[in-house]
Amino acid sequence: MCGLFSKKEKVEPKYLIALIGMTGAGKSTFISKASGRKDIQISNSSSSCTKDIQAVSFKYKGSQVTLIDTPGFDDTNRSDAEILQTIALFLSGSAEAGLPLTGVIFLQSVLTIRMQGSEKTRIRLIEKILGEDAFPNLVLATTQWSHLKNPKEGDALVEERSSQDDFWGYMIKHGARLAKHDNTKSSALKIVGSIIDNHKEPVPLQMQKELAMNDFKVILTSAGKIADAALGESATEFEKRLQQLKRTTSGHAVNAVDQDEVDDIQENLKETAAAKEKLRNARVTPEQVHDWAKTFAQVVEIGLTAAKVIACAVC
C-alpha cells in the first residue's frame, strides 16, 4: 500500500487543471491560495521542492476542482529529461484514468527580466507538450508582482514576451490568454474561474497523443526531441569552450583559475552526457501507467493532497 486514505464524502470530479512552469514561479503557492490549504509543500528558494506530482482538490462554486502541480523545469536537482518522464507518466496515466485536463496554467515570475536561450527552449518544450489545439485552454499567468519596486518592469516583461513568437506570442495568437496573479486567493480563483468559464471540451495534449503513438518513449515525442537537441547544443558549447581554453593555455603552465574552469566544463560535459542517456532511455511502461492511473483516480475522487502517494506510483 502506498498510503492510507481517510473516508470522505466522494465528489464527482469535474475540473482538472495542471500548473506548469519553471522552478520558483510559484505553482505550489498558487495552489495553496486557490484551495485555502495550508499544508501544501512550498519552495521559498531556487531549489526545487516539488519532486513529483502534487494534486489538491477543493470546492469552487459547487463543483470540484483539482489543481495538479507538475515538476518545474530548470530544476536544480533533476534534468529536463527526468522531468519530461514524470510529466509523460502523469499525462499517460490521467488519459488512461479517463480524467482529461480542463485546462493548463503556465506560471511565469515577473522577476525574470532578461530573456535567455534556456527560457526559449523551455517555452518550446511547453508548446510541444500541449500542442496548438490546447492553447485556447491555456492561461499565461504572471506572478511575484509584489516583489517589484517598479510595476512597469513587469509590464515591460509581459509586453516583450507577448509580442515575440519565440516566447509567448505564438501561443497567444492561437488562443492562450494572459492573466496577472497578485498572490491572493481571489486572484487565484479568478484565473481558475476563467479556465472553467472558457472551457468547451477537453483536448488531448500533443504529448499524450505522441506517447501513445511511439511506444511511450519520451525521446520520440516532439518535446523529447527538443530536449535532446538542447542537450546536444549545450554539449557543443562546452566542447568549444574547452578547446578555447586548451589553445589559450597551450605551451605554458595552467593556472589555478583556468584549471578550475576546465574541471567545471568537464563536469558539465559528463552531466550533459548522462542527461542525454536518461532521455534516450526514458519510457513509461504500461504497468506504470496503469498503477499511476489507479492512484490518481483515487486521489481525485477523494480530494486529498497526493504528492507522496503518487510518488510511489512513479518509482
Automatic annotation (TrEMBL):
<dbReference type="Pfam" id="PF01926">
    <property type="entry name" value="MMR_HSR1"/>
</dbReference>
<keyword id="KW-0812">Transmembrane</keyword>
<dbReference type="GO" id="GO:0046872">
    <property type="term" value="F:metal ion binding"/>
</dbReference>
<protein>
    <recommendedName>
        <fullName>G domain-containing protein</fullName>
    </recommendedName>
</protein>
<dbReference type="GO" id="GO:0005525">
    <property type="term" value="F:GTP binding"/>
</dbReference>
<keyword id="KW-0150">Chloroplast</keyword>
<keyword id="KW-0934">Plastid</keyword>
<dbReference type="InterPro" id="IPR006073">
    <property type="entry name" value="GTP-bd"/>
</dbReference>
<keyword id="KW-0813">Transport</keyword>
<keyword id="KW-0460">Magnesium</keyword>
<keyword id="KW-1133">Transmembrane helix</keyword>
<dbReference type="InterPro" id="IPR027417">
    <property type="entry name" value="P-loop_NTPase"/>
</dbReference>
<dbReference type="GO" id="GO:0015031">
    <property type="term" value="P:protein transport"/>
</dbReference>
<keyword id="KW-1002">Plastid outer membrane</keyword>
<dbReference type="GO" id="GO:0016787">
    <property type="term" value="F:hydrolase activity"/>
</dbReference>
<dbReference type="InterPro" id="IPR045058">
    <property type="entry name" value="GIMA/IAN/Toc"/>
</dbReference>
<keyword id="KW-0479">Metal-binding</keyword>
<dbReference type="GO" id="GO:0016020">
    <property type="term" value="C:membrane"/>
</dbReference>
<keyword id="KW-0472">Membrane</keyword>
<keyword id="KW-0378">Hydrolase</keyword>
<keyword id="KW-0653">Protein transport</keyword>
<feature type="domain" description="G">
    <location>
        <begin position="17"/>
        <end position="78"/>
    </location>
</feature>
